[in-house]
Amino acid sequence: MSDLEAPLRPKRKKVWVDYFVQFRWILVIFVVLPISFTLYFLTYLGDVKSEMKSYKQRQKEHDENVKKVVKRLKERNPSKDGLVCTARKPWIAVGMRNVDYKRARHFEVDLSAFRNILEIDRERMVARVEPLVNMGQISRASVPMNLSLAVVAELDDLTVGGLINGYGIEGSSHIYGLFSDTVVAYEIVLADGQVVRATKDNEYSDLFYAVPWSQGTLGLLVSAEIKLIPVKEYMRLTYKPVVGNLKELAQGYIDSFAPRDGDQDNPSKVPDFVETMIYNSTEGVMMTGRYASKEEAKKKGNVINNVGWWFKPWFYQHAQTALKKGEFVEYIPTREYYHRHTRCLYWEGKLILPFADQWWFRFLLGWMMPPKVSLLKATQGEAIRNYYHEMHVIQDMLVPLYKVGDALEWVDREMEVYPIWLCPHRLFKLPVKTMVYPEPGFEHQHRQGDTSYAQMYTDVGVYYSPGPVLRGEVFDGAEAVRRMEDWLIENHGFQPQYAVSELNEKKFWRMFDADLYEHARKKYGAVGTFMSVYYKSKKGRKTEKEVQEAEQAHLETAYAEAG
């Protein structure tokens, strides 16, 4: 939306928080960045130490740590200790939602030791990992073996546990689905201390399908077996600019990976990786990637771009050059491609450090990027946190592929946030109805991108300050999010719960399906031990009354069933 077309809004009077945010870069450069770099380095050393151990030793430590978790759970007094959650500090979570449930009475279980890759099984093509293993760690171990997780979320710090219990996506999700769709088995400690292995076809299949999106409210995940795929050394990436209105940009994006003849499973027609960035209401760049060998990449005339070097232009800005120079192709080392958005946190880095994309900063200090999201959260008080909730948007709108154009127009009209990230993903038709599910009857519509077994969705990533905020105008962030959530409910869309949510409980369960989740909560004893997913994701500090009501829920449920 151009400035001339922008709605007329009154100017917002600046308050002290505005000035603190404006000059926050001083704190980031002199405090957050050095500490972040130190923590990254210490984490790397810990990963190296773990890799030096044999799989047998890692498994032995894992078994001992699981016993400690079971013992800790059995120490809980249900009448006074509060609901169970992990001992991880609230600010450590990568998500932008405030972890308010940990600010009320609760019973902590320490899972900090669960950060080992337990096994990479070439025969089964499965990686067995603990929940705190992050994407940087697993790609560092697997890619040199020409193996990779089927879905590798872009940011290094994202953990397996968070991506399973919450939400994870990548440019390969149009083939493999969301991160949780690539899991083969879960090892979970239930409320009574029982340790179970859940798969799609064993006695715990209902638990297997209920875990994704449950936010860790069915049990404590202590390991997962995740699908591996063979990969090559490079990604052959094609950048294609598209110009037009938002509906035309949406169609260009769809055409970049979804054959119009419906042959969605044909690897010769469908790329290995897909993403699109919409830079304004009339311009976007579509990127499609295919794995390539080092022999192909190093052929004379081919361009190799090591985007992982600290001094390189930020990826989203590099891709934007296609708008001026036209379509081009280059080869990027596979692991560097996976983590292409890490250093600049997509484009959020521009807000955190306004000059960090400049050549001189990249060359001098780019090696310390990015600041850890957890430290950014730890160095902001309540007022700053609330300011960001009102003046800043970090939301993902998961919408059916055929509604992407409508979603782009909605974001342009209501939020004016650019760039916008588009990433497709399959939503599979499963034997049971899970919390997120495709539109009923989608398989009979034969829409572009759909198959008989999966409906194609798209993550419309909205990350940045809205246009009105950048122009100094009044903007009601909470109301904008409420309207977005209503739009998603009306259009069979979903909102990942790592983000700030304004949903009340009734609307939450209109967006998500509760049946299987509530069945699993009752069957596996989670009610009254683990908080419910709505309780956990609800905005605001929990009161003691809410804690007591949640604790008593299992007694009421048992009484009702007995009656």
Describe the structure.
This protein has 563 residues and is α+β, with helices and mostly antiparallel strands. It contains 23 helices and 15 strands. It has helices at 16-22, 24-52, 55-74, 135-142, 160-165, 173-176, 205-210, 246-255, 294-297, 315-320, 322-325, 334-338, 349-352, 359-365, 373-378, 382-391, 404-414, 467-470, 477-490, 505-511, 515-523, 533-537, 544-562; strands at residues 83-86, 106-109, 117-121, 126-129, 147-149, 183-189, 195-198, 220-230, 234-243, 273-280, 283-292, 328-333, 393-400, 420-428, 454-464. The strands form three sheets. A seven-stranded antiparallel beta sheet has the order 12-9-11-10-14-15-13. Strands 3, 4, 5, 6, 7 and 8 form a six-stranded antiparallel beta sheet that branches. Strands 1-2 form a two-stranded parallel ribbon. Helix 8 (246-255) packs antiparallel against helix 17 (404-414). Residues 52-231 form the FAD-binding PCMH-type domain. It is a single-pass membrane protein. The chain crosses the membrane at residues 23-46. It is found in: Membrane.
